[in-house]
Amino acid sequence: MFITKPPVRLYIFILIISASFISGCGVFNPKVKVKRAVLLKTEDASRADLINQVNNLARVNSMYAKVDLKFEDNSYAELGVADRYKSADGLIVVQRPENIQLKVQIPFIKTDIVQMTSDGEKFRVAVLEDGGDGKNRVFVRGTNNADYSVLKKDLAEKMENEGSTKELKQNVNAFSNLRPQHFTDAMLVRPIDTNKFTYVQSTITQEEVGLDEKKKRPESWVLRGYYLLDEYAKDSQGDIQITRRFWFDRVGRVRLARQQIFDADGEIESDIVYGQEGRLTGSGEYNNLPLEIEVTRPKEKYKMRLRYQSPETVSIGKTYPQEAFVLENIWNLPEIDLDNKVIEMTGKAPPRIRQVIEARSQ
Q1: Are the C-beta atoms of residues 353 and 143 closer than 8 Å to each other?
Q2: Whose CA is closest to 116, among 59, 167, 178, 57?
Q3: CA 73, CA 57: separation in Å to the nearest integer?
Q4: Distance between CA 295 and CA 184 in Å, rounded?
Q5: Each residue of 245-264: pLDDT tens digit?
Q6: Are strands 217-234 and 38-39 parallel, antiparallel or unpaired?
Q7: Contact, 134 vs 341, CB < 8 A?
Q8: What SS3 state is found at 33?
Q9: How far apart are CA 174 and CA 72, in angstroms?
Q10: Is 223 in contact with 198 (CB distance < 8 Å)?
């Protein structure tokens, strides 16, 4: 008989396995710990509870408040770059159905950067501070929901002025590109209407960065559970399309944390995050309302955070005249009509503008 010697590779393999067991740190060691996201405990709620939370926020028919505003330009988000600007003071008035007046001021100086209004159909923006010598102060008119992407030159480009500080120009350019109607859906939430829309409830779990509540800083990854309440409507062809999606945080207690609004193509038009809840006004009637609201507009590539300066001084429920939501050019600023600009460039009016023109002619 011939005794064959085990191949060298077999010896090496046996040594590796032995070393693994001896050292206690090998791939077969059951004591090896892999750090995973922590699954947070969730609370339960019924569909009726979710609907009540939305309708609680929808109780606000009008509001007058002083706010802090912070703008973030996401024009270069695809490159991982976002421009953040310092906070500005704001004065905001909203009233149903879609009325809003917003003034943005330079902090401490209390000089208006812009004033803007929307009556639900048209918006007007007065740029009162251009960050320079005043040559680019302008009064802009436009139609809500109209597509102005054809207008390549942004208003911010018209305000580049070497005579102003970089910081001031950034703030001016940022806030002058806002559109007032982007905030009406965030602050004047439309109530649930089961007669007109269909609502579907579901659950989802997301991996997120957990925060150390004491130190207010990111700590570890967590799995957070949410309820989703989707709103569906039928379009003119009878097809079902999503119009809104509400997110309810289920950790600690069930709380409305987010609202997404979709356009006719199913694309996100507004992504609204509601921050910490508290009491608005001093009456004690409006509790569990968000004290901070963050609006992201993916198409316009910007994000705006709104925070009430003094929640107890917020006024809710008053009635304001309709004239308060139609800004007049009392400064005799040069005027830009965005609808006319589109018509001049393309030879035709965009669909939304045509609808407004046709409605007026009837």
Answers
A1: yes
A2: 178
A3: 28
A4: 11
A5: 999 999 999 999 999 999 98
A6: parallel
A7: no
A8: coil
A9: 8
A10: no
User: What six digits make up the tokens of 255?
Assistant: 């709380």
Across all residues in the chain, what is the average pLDDT?
80
| Rounded Cα gap, residues 236 and 229, in angstroms | 23
Cα distances (angstroms) measured from residue 65 to each of 278, 309, 312: 15, 8, 10
What does the pLDDT average to over 177-198? 90
Instruction: Kindly state the helix (H) or strand (E) to which residue 339 belongs, with its residue range.
Output: helix 338-346
pLDDT at 77: 45
Least confident of 49-58, 79-88, 215-224, 261-270: 79-88
Contact (CB, 8 A) for 7 and 15: no
Dig out the tokens for 271 from the structure: 């992504």
Query: CA 140 to CA 36: how far, in whole Å?
Result: 52
**Spacing of C-alpha 132 from chain mean position:** 30
Return the SS3 of 5: coil
Smallest CA-to-CA distance from 188 within 54, 52, 323 is with 54
Which of 151-155, 181-185, 192-196 is most confident? Answer: 192-196
Which of 292, 244, 232, 236 lies closest to 268, judged by CA? 244
Alpha-carbon dihedral angle through residues 64, 192, 146, 157, given to the nearest 10 degrees = 50
Place of tokens 């508290």: 278
Q: What is the pLDDT of residue 155?
A: 44
pLDDT score for 81: 42
User: Does the reported pTM lie above 0.85?
Assistant: no
pLDDT of 294 strictly over 70: yes
Beta strand spans in 56-161 (E): 62-73, 83-84, 88-95, 99-106, 111-118, 122-127, 138-143
Q: What pLDDT shows up at residue 46? A: 95
Average pLDDT over residues 59-71: 94
What type of residue sits at position 136?
N
